[in-house]
Amino acid sequence: MKKSFQIGSAFVGLIVGAGFASGQEVMQYFTSFGIWGTAGGIVTTLLFIFLGYTFAKLGTNLRANSHKTVLYYIGGKFIGPILDIVITFFLFGVAVVMFAGAGSTFNQMFGITAVAGSIIMAAAVILTLLLNTNKIIGIIATITPYLIAVIFVILIYSIFSMDLSIPEADELAKQQPSAASNWLLGAFLYVSYNLAAGAALLIIMTGNEKDKKAAGMGGVLGGLMLGILIILIHIGMFARIDVVAGKDMPTLELANQIHPVIGLLTAVALLGMIYNTAVGMLYSFTVRFIAPESKSYRPAVIVIGILGFIASLIGFTTLVGSVYVVMGYLGFVLIILAVAAWLRKPQNN
């Protein structure tokens, strides 16, 4: 159970990056649909549980040391290479979003320029990637419980300090920009683009896991924790939509409303999750091309990290609203093939 929780926590830590923990993604994919956003959160939870289990089992059954192994298995020799290319470069794209998100967080909370904040995060990620795989997964897993605790505090405050009636909050929420045309599509898109990136590290983590049951349960626990966090953040923002509407970092805004100390703790949690996701994405991207034990691995990490920082200068909100949506539609193919593989051949216990 301990191993399953570590795998699940690392899976959560990877996906709960800048857009998720800040509330920006949850706002665009769930809260912007008002009350129906809660239904979207429930659908998302069920999808994350099923797909987390499926990819964890695929990773451990195929003994995968890169996402390429599983993608070629579920996609075959024609679709597999296309998925490989798309997901590989999406990993880099998400890391870029994380650097931009770090810039926004440092700027909003500490008054540091966004560029300087992005530089700090890029440097921290590059240094971490010089460690070994087990240390990276351990670091990612440890920050998740801390984030959950902070989100619970914000949720409780938001509900008990709600000034609007539910119909008023619903109306105001629906005025916010949405990343999809309806709540159900938003839920599927959200799972799709997160899985396109999160599946890569989940596959790598479980590929080295000998206990197949622990790996599968890790995927289930990770999916469940993700879903619960989405619903909690959504409810918290819905309750105080009058405060968070139009903010780059809605969760941080709510935390500051409670107390400056809570705001500081939330900023630290946000930066921790941004760091987690950036580390996981850049690591998965790099090992797709270069083995960690290779002499060229370290120089490659430095070059890729610097390129990621340069690309992040486009801006956080712009990247969340465009890069993620496009990749979400492409991720649907991955989900369909994963389900087909699951139906085609029962996974070993």
UniProtKB/TrEMBL annotation:
Top-level taxon: Bacteria
Q: Where are the transmembrane segments?
A: 33-56, 77-103, 109-130, 137-160, 180-204, 216-241, 261-285, 297-316, 322-343
The reply to whether Transmembrane helix figures as a keyword in the UniProt entry is: yes
Q: Which UniProt keywords apply?
A: Membrane, Transmembrane, Transmembrane helix
Q: Which InterPro entries match?
A: YkvI-like
Concerning PANTHER family, the annotation shows: CONSERVED MEMBRANE PROTEIN (PTHR37814), MEMBRANE PROTEIN (PTHR37814:SF1)
Q: What is this protein called?
A: Membrane protein YkvI
Q: Which organism is it from?
A: Jeotgalicoccus nanhaiensis
